[in-house]
Amino acid sequence: MAFAEHGGGVIAALSAALALILPVDCAGCGTPDSSLCETCAEILAAPRPRRHVLASGLVVHAAFDFADRPARALRALKEEGRTGLVRPFSMALAAVAAVGFPDATEVAFIPIPTSAAAFRRRGHRVVEAILGRSSLPALAVLRRVRSTRDQRELGRAERAQNVAGSLRATRRLDGRRVVIVDDVVTTGATVGEAARALREVGAQVMGVACVAHTRRTGFVRDTDMNPG
């Protein structure tokens, strides 16, 4: 509860200041003259962590479903350059990590690297920025070793084939406990490829922490992690 109250107050204050300088519509619902309205700020400040298990057995912990206001706000960050939203999403990531990985100080959080094409299109690195503001212990050791197609237009099997062999770790991580971090998990193809690359260098992959997930057939179990 304290997390939600503190986060909501910070977000509301930032939104009001930005609206005075450059009036915009709310990223989550389109309300005019507010970069993030009070209702959307409260929703983003109160994530409901859920635990999902991929068919591969990889466990994904998500702060939100990729739907409604959180989805629209995340799209605004990724595709419209609304970088002020990094702050609330970083707090949501920290919250889901606290629930899913309570011994977070003993693991390294490894971001999925932004592709060169996505960086050229957006001008910023979404996953790296969110993780960087979260205060979680980050370790950027994954690199893209070949180009891939845009995943948005591909089916589940095509996504897996598209990213196969596209990531590589830059150093040995023998016995190191790691958590993969992404913004949105859809079919799990990208985080599955990241897990392969990390295990190849000896890492012990504990699971995935993400801002949001989409409900796809790649998930075999889905559990609400929010106490009460």
Automatic annotation (TrEMBL):
Superkingdom per UniProt: Bacteria
Every Phosphoribosyltransferase domain range: 105-217
SUPFAM superfamilies: PRTase-like (SSF53271)
Database matches in Pfam families: Pribosyltran (PF00156)
Alphabetized PANTHER family for the sequence: DNA UTILIZATION PROTEIN YHGH (PTHR47505)
Entry similarity comment: Belongs to the ComF/GntX family.
Protein name listed in UniProt: Phosphoribosyltransferase domain-containing protein
Taxonomy of the source species: Bacteria, Bacillati, Actinomycetota, Actinomycetes, Micrococcales
